Every structure is written in structure tokens, then in C-alpha cells.
């Protein structure tokens, strides 16, 4: 995200308004976290523990 912020600020030819670009990127991160935690809460009410599911994945 820092690399993308650097590119946006360094190259105004991209046509991206810096504060709007940062607001959009921040909103995407917040939306992703919100969806994850809502899905996690729903699955916990259904009796599915997502932490245990992620522990079952083999390490690579």
C-alpha cells in the first residue's frame, strides 16, 4: 500500500487525486476487514470456528 501511495504522489500524470485515491484504498481495506469479521461472526453462530479451519491448512 505504501508503494502504491508513493506512485500516486510521484506521478500526477496518472490523473488520480491523492486524497481521493487514499480514501478509496483505505475504504477497500476497511470493507475487506468488515466482510471478514461479519463472516466470522456468522460462522461462529453456526458453530464453525474459522480459526480451526485455518490451522488445518498445510504449511507451504
Structural account:
By secondary structure, this protein is mainly α. It has one domain (2-55). 72% of the residues lie in helices and 0% in strands. The chain contains three helices and no strands. The radius of gyration is 18 Å and the shape is elongated.
Average per-residue pLDDT, rounded, comes to 83
Number of strands: 0
Count of the separate structural domains: 1
N-to-C span: 25 Å
Order of helices and strands: HHH
Number of helices: 3
Sheet with the most strands? none
Rounded Rg: 18 Å
How much of the sequence lies in strands comes to: under 5%
Structural class: mainly alpha
Low-confidence stretches: none
Residues in helices, as a percent range? over 70%
Shape, per Cα inertia axes: elongated
In short:
The chain is mostly helical. The chain is built from 3 helices and no strands.
Output the keywords.
mainly alpha; about 0% strand; about 60 residues; 3 helices; elongated
Q: What's the layout of helices and strands?
A:
Blueprint: H1 2-10, H2 18-45, H3 50-55
Amino acid at each position: 500500500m505504501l508503494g502504491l501511495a508513493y506512485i500516486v504522489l510521484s506521478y500526477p500524470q496518472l490523473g488520480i487525486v491523492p486524497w481521493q485515491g487514499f480514501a478509496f484504498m483505505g475504504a477497500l481495506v476497511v470493507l475487506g476487514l468488515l466482510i471478514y469479521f461479519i463472516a466470522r461472526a456468522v460462522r461462529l453462530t453456526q458453530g464453525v470456528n474459522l480459526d480451526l479451519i485455518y490451522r488445518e491448512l498445510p504449511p507451504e
